[in-house]
């Protein structure tokens, strides 16, 4: 099986990967590109322009989320309905594009913090399955998949309270391979050295400590301080910022 995360609208790279493999593909969330912090591309830039996005990202990277929200409210004042309609159109177009790239794949897709599950599932192609949280067998491995992001202050649609993340993980029971969108709450894995933000899930770390799966794969953190870690017997790996790399990680050679 091949694992990717943080596709963020890279449909041509995803299509190339799908055409090159003949094995299951696990997509660990964040399929659309709301904002690329490297160059400010994305849906928000199409709504409001790159200069505005650069200012907004600067506030977010400083942890000034209230100021970022105030800046957006000021920008949107008097245009709320127009921006809402255009945002809905852009999100729909983004999922049509990225799901077209998955056509023909034997794919298992979960969601990340930026994803709109209702739109994602509406455009999921034949042969792909959406997994919110479930335990299943893939190529002889018992695989647990839990989607969703941790609370970050950004107010994006795919975030979960950590208690809910814990409940979903507990429902899996022991597995060979755990797949989440979020990193465990380990500083080197959860800190983005470029973006400055740090977000990891204590519930994921608790699950790893208790159940010791052979592997834990995740994404979410685009430029982590570390991509590999061990929690007891569990090998943890950030499968990479697919929008930037165009590469997946293969199991069992992971």
Question: What is this entry, summarized?
Answer:
The protein has 254 residues and is α/β, with parallel strands linked by helices.
Describe the structure using short key phrases:
single chain; 254 residues; alpha/beta; Purple Acid Phosphatase, chain A, domain 2; six-stranded mixed beta sheet; five-stranded mixed beta sheet; globular
Structural summary, described in words:
The protein is of the alpha/beta class. It has a single domain, classed as Metallo-dependent phosphatases (Purple Acid Phosphatase, chain A, domain 2, 4-Layer Sandwich). The protein is 38% helix and 19% strand. It contains 10 helices and 13 strands. It has helices spanning 11-20, 43-48, 50-61, 65-76, 80-101, 117-122, 162-172, 187-190, 202-211, 242-245; strands spanning 2-4, 25-28, 107-110, 128-130, 133-138, 141-146, 149-150, 159-160, 177-180, 215-218, 228-231, 234-238, 249-250. Strands 5-6-9-10-12-11 form a 6-stranded mixed β-sheet, with helices on one face. A 5-stranded mixed β-sheet has the order 4-3-2-1-13, with no helix packed on it. Strand 11 (228-231) and strand 12 form a beta hairpin. Helix 1 (11-20) runs parallel beside helix 5, helix 3 packs antiparallel against helix 4 and helix 7 (162-172) runs parallel beside helix 9. The relative contact order is 0.18.
